[in-house]
Design goal:
This protein has helices at residues 3-7, 12-19, 51-62, 76-84, 97-107, 125-130, 142-145, 160-171, 174-179, and strands at 23-26, 38-39, 45-46, 66-70, 89-91, 115-118, 133-136, 150-151. It is of the alpha/beta class.
Length: 182
Amino acid sequence: MPAREVLNKYTKTLIKRAADVKAIFFDVDGVLTDGKIIYDSEGRELKHFNVKDGQIISHLKNAGVVVGAISGRDSAAVSKRCAELKMDFCHQGILDKAAVFKKLAAYHKLKKKDIIYIGDDINDLGPLKLCGLAICPADAPVYLKKMVDMSTRAKGGEGVLREVADLVLAAKGILAKILKGK
């Protein structure tokens, strides 16, 4: 999809805000996955990740965008996926996501307006209130959708991060260059 078509879906205000983004922080279960937790017969946890989300991370990082996960659960599958994608950070087992969000913002010298946070549930309320652009997946609870700046068209595990990344890269004028092979 040409970069122009990506931007046609959004308001000028949202595009301007996305153009200023320097970091995307996100929850994992319900954002990068569909939120289902599967255990095999030996008790190992299995998760479905969407390859489209992973594909775009290198382009975000090349554009200077900090990318990482703040998850309430601890999961070897998440550790492996975050390492595989060379995310800037992967914090798991986090009860107070707002505190970790603040520490990460300070560490990376980011202002509120610089950060997108993508979350899908109650434990994401803290970071969603602290960030400059709050986003949730299409299948987040209605009350959460009313609190954010944008709800994606994609459901959790179906390319939520990709949709947001495409918006950010298009707003920065980078997606057009990627599509032209530059």
